[in-house]
Write a structure and sequence with these properties.
single chain, mainly alpha, about 70% helix, elongated
Amino acid sequence: MENKQVTNSDINVEQVEKEEMVMETNSEITSVHDEIIDEVKRIITVSDDGSKKTVNDEKLNPLFKSIYELTNSELLPLVEKLTDFETLTDELKKAGDILTKIIDCADKGFRLTDTSDEQQPLSEVHLQFSEILMIADTEIRQHIPTPVNA
């Protein structure tokens, strides 16, 4: 049997290493949280701008307004409260449901503004729906799972 002596300095080193690991983990969580909030705010900005540009369009303006309201009034306050994006809590499920609605609106606007004509340049509004879709479906969705349709 091996007799291993543990000194006080060994314990202190181990404790410092554990504390550093906890601090790194907390920093990563804060970083992800801040990143998600920034992405949500980007959607708010783009949808607000799109709403202003389509004020006279009866099909597109309601989509931008819906995206803005869902993001600003529902998703942002919820994401600001979330601290855990790993455990599927009721709050995270609700955020996923809201994100699904945002993605659906952006996708509908994207399809409505798609020209499918290689000669014609893509409209700015089409690019705005595209940006919202990319942010919601790619950037945010990797942290907030959306429900799977049965």
